[in-house]
Amino acid sequence: MPQIELSAGSIDYEDTAGDGPVVVLVHGLGFDASVWADVVSDLRRDFRVLVPVLPLGSHRRPMRPDADLSAHGIALLLAEFLDRLDLRDVTLVQNDTGTAQLLVGVRDERVARLVLTSCEALDNYPPGTQGRLLHRASKVPGGLFLLIQSFRFPFLARMQTSLGGMAKKRLPKELIARWYGPLLTSRHIRRDFAKFCRDVDPECYVRAAGNLRSFTRPALVAWGAEDRMMPPATGRRLAELLPDARYVEIPDARTLVQLDNPTALTEEIRRFVKEHPLPGEG
Known about the structure:
Layout: E1 3-6, E2 9-15, E3 22-26, H1 37-43, E4 48-52, H2 71-84, E5 90-96, E6 111-119, H3 128-138, H4 143-148, H5 154-157, H6 173-185, H7 187-198, H8 204-212, E7 219-224, H9 232-241, E8 245-250, H10 257-260, H11 262-275
Parallel strand pairs: 3-4, 3-5, 5-6, 6-7, 7-8
Antiparallel strand pairs: 1-2, 2-4
Helix pairs in contact: 1-11, 3-7, 6-7
């Protein structure tokens, strides 16, 4: 993977290159670019697809000790990534964390189309049992370290109250090991992860929702139809706030829609881009 130096530190990213329309895929907490592998494989034929590995626990390069790794800090790093690579007219696709919402009305000048798949929004933050457990553990000395140890054992990670509750499909042990290896082996990565988990403001996305009505560019809200952690009702409310949005539910999918049903998700993204062409496209 290539890497790029940002204000918080160096991050890895995937870039399929090419001259097609730019799509940036954004992963959530505890994941890396591999969570988007099937979607990248499909879209790369017609798009330039980039996936930054944000410092959310599965990154391999620790950030600087003074880095702001709150939700807003991560959002600004994403904006900085777009700036540094001079990416324009981006179709920004977000999953799990609500990062992209925090750019709306603040640093959204490079975003031409917005796709929000099952993610934190409105009053669902921290989201579900999993999110609340992480937040509480981060407040107890040694709590996150003990909780993370469960990911050494795939059968524990696959529990419905853990990672398994985010996907309808059985998660391969190889992916679980990849995602949580950095947390299990590096205290600096655990430090970065703990920063994000501790700095939870329950009103963060409620306030961000106030800016969504100003985003008049096209938006697609594609939610996992069977999502338990990010209820579809939240997705419908989110779509109602965006002036030019279409809401769709991805069948046979929970939070990790890109793993559960990548074909349906990529079809919706392709349809969305085709329905909202930019000058020079198509």
